[in-house]
Task: inverse folding
């Protein structure tokens, strides 16, 4: 089987409400790139790359399309079912730039599943028992707004919440009240500062939690791996690494350093399902819990994450974030519904989604052999 055509689509994803992260960062819309890989066997695979704007990670939407443009001559003619080999080709042709490669890699897994007649989760090690818990993503607004957002999310079935912290120490110590309220409701909370605290700030907030008798999971408290490690060694609060864990090499170091209790794997951050699976499997061997996510995206991305999460051993599977939570755009049918704050991967071959041509519009680029 050979890739014969690559079609690239661009779609805007206006958010249902403005979204804030630490440091005053604000988003109102995302720009997503959808890729269709066509093959000489008549099988088409779908993938998506959706960076969270330009200021969240070293990634941006126009860059994703430029990455695909740069890689297209190398990818055409490859057998998409040989996913590791396709990644070798991409990494030789263009080192780095994982945020663009993820769309091609995801589409290759979709083709592999369709060709094998198996869902991607069964090709990634096999379906693990149980439904996958969803985690909400609670924008770092004011405290009253945060609490009302959480109550609305609970009504949609969420029982796990990633509460975004602002980066302002006194405000964030007060935000622990919101976290305590979530715990009192019987729900689970992550405290995610998205790298927004200096080490001393992180220590102050984590120590304030400890003095209240709260042991919480603090996600990416500081900007760099080294700062997170230093902060975690100064207080007795567990850490989840996210933004700075972008490669299996960082994970190996984190395991050796005992730097974290959990990790957040975003498939676009690491370069696609192939690399996310490697990180997932190493983390599982080390006994780390995981949240499986991407930086943004539609039903296509959500399906890809779901297959990765569904094939992750249940005791290690903290949660999945479905980015369709923050917008109303539907580019594909087939994504499983949310059921009581959970999702379960479909049994249909590949990713199990069917993109809607009328919603994708005309391709912005087409590459053929
Ligand atoms: Mg995070």
Result:
């Amino acid at each position: 089987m050979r890739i014969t055509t690559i079609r690239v689509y661009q779609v805007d994803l206006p958010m249902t409400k403005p979204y804030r992260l630490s440091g005053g960062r604000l988003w109102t819309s995302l720009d997503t790139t959808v890729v269709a890989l066509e093959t000489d066997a008549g099988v088409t695979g779908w993938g998506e790359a959706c960076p969270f704007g330009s200021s969240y990670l070293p990634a941006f939407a126009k860059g994703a399309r430029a990455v695909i443009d740069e890689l297209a001559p190398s990818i055409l003619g490859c057998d998409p079912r040989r996913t590791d080999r396709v990644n070798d080709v991409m990494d030789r042709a263009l080192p780095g730039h994982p945020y663009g490669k993820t769309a091609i890699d995801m589409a290759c897994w979709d083709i592999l599943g369709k060709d094998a007649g198996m869902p991607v989760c069964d090709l990634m090690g096999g379906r693990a028992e149980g439904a996958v818990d969803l985690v909400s993503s609670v924008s770092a607004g004011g405290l009253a707004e945060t609490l009302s957002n959480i109550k609305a999310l609970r009504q949609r079935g969420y029982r796990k919440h990633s509460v975004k912290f602002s980066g302002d120490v006194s405000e964030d110590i007060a935000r622990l009240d919101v976290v305590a309220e979530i715990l009192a409701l019987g729900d689970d909370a992550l405290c995610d500062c998205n790298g927004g605290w200096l080490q001393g700030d992180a220590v102050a907030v984590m120590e304030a939690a400890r003095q209240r008798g709260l042991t919480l999971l603090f996600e990416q408290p500081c900007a760099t791996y080294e700062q997170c490690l230093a902060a975690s060694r100064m207080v007795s609060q567990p850490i989840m690494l996210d933004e700075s864990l972008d490669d299996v090499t960082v994970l190996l170091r984190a395991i050796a350093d005992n730097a974290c209790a959990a990790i957040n794997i975003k498939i676009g951050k690491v370069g696609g399902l192939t690399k996310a699976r490697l990180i997932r499997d190493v983390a599982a061997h080390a006994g780390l819990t995981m949240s499986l996510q991407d930086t943004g995206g539609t039903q296509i991305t959500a399906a890809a994450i779901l297959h990765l999460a569904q094939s992750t051993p249940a005791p290690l599977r903290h949660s999945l974030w479905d980015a369709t939570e923050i917008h109303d755009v539907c580019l594909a049918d087939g994504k499983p519904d949310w059921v009581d704050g959970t999702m379960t991967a479909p049994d249909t071959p590949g990713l199990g989604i069917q993109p809607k041509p009328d919603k994708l519009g005309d391709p912005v680029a087409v590459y053929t052999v």
